[in-house]
Amino acid sequence: MTFADTVRYLFSLGPELKTVKWDLERMHLLLAELGEPQQGLRYIHVAGTNGKGSVCAMLDSSLRAAGYRTGLYTSPHLVDARERIRIDGQWLAEHAWVDAFEKVYAASERLLACGTVDSHPSFFETLTAMAFVAFHAAGTDVVVLEVGLGGRLDATNVVMPEVAVITPIDFDHEAFLGSSLTSIAGEKAGILKAGAKAVFAEQRPEALRMLETKAAELGVSPTHSRDWAVLQLVQSRWSSEFVAAGPVSIRVKVNLAGAHQIGNARTAVAALWAFGVEPAFIEAGIAKAEWPGRLERVARNPDIILDGAHNPAGAKALASFIQKHFAGEPIRIVFGAMRDKAHDEVVGTLVPLAAEVVLTVPNQPRALGPEILAELTDHANVKVIPAVADALEYVKAHPMTTFVTGSLFLVGEARALLV
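and the corresponding structure tokens:
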């Protein structure tokens, strides 16, 4: 089987939110059939609504700086599915990907044949099992494991982490996680384990109360990122520097744009310190961390910036960045969204900041038609260009600072055409 064959098969399993099974039984059965490849590895498990990917990138980079052989599992991918499974910072090689897929596929078929499971493991379950197989085969020392959705019933929640990290919680996937921040936080708190350390980013009060309640039930005394004071902060358009003052002082340089990355970096510092990483390696690792598609500048003069602001909190962070660093400068927003997102609130936050708006459609079945998006705004300068490639050609032909945003699928499609 080729790499392309495996990708076609994985996507044939159907949209994850339609095929997901909301319990961990099938995942446990699959891993048992594979010989429990997730066991024997050290983990930092990361849940939350926003900032998970950036925090994971900082953790992975710092652990590598400290000399660990790392595994990194994140989602979704932007361009290539192998982005989701990395070893020592590199995408999983195609031959290793195919090997992991074939092992998981064979195990799944055996379970189906004997009636142990009633349906094939989902797209995300299969990928998660592949990641465990690959990390085990590569002899990784530490795995940074990002939750896909929620936490309590997420396919990644089959490990005993040394540190469980919860980034800021906000509204997203309410149909699955609940319509209140308390219920959403309860799902995210499902990754907490008795005997594991916990690190909480700054949270809204109702989310924090739930996290602390769940931690207390488990006998866990959490560390809060706010325990690390931010001193001597210097911000520029594309980076920031500060001193994180906690049990020790750590000079942090974040080469990721946006004020929200300061909070993400502080959370990463707290988690790395809890794990036992020395300050010099934390400093070196965070400075080298990269996370594509999040306020990523992919062209200059004029700038084209990609940002997957796909939920209200992400849109507010992007709006804050635009207002702080592009005040008085005309900007264009190229926007596309998925049907299951709070697109009306995101549109209401971002569109008023633009001199021009281009509405487009990511090449995904769940994509929302631009005509529906157009109905959500009375902006005077809106263009509908359905094909993403055509929208980008328009951007290039009419220079203006441009933010390509909304769905991460749009960002990934645009990045493949621009980078």
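(Above: one complete record from the training split.) Residues 296-418 form a domain with the Protein-Tyrosine Phosphatase; Chain A fold (CATH 3.90.190.20).
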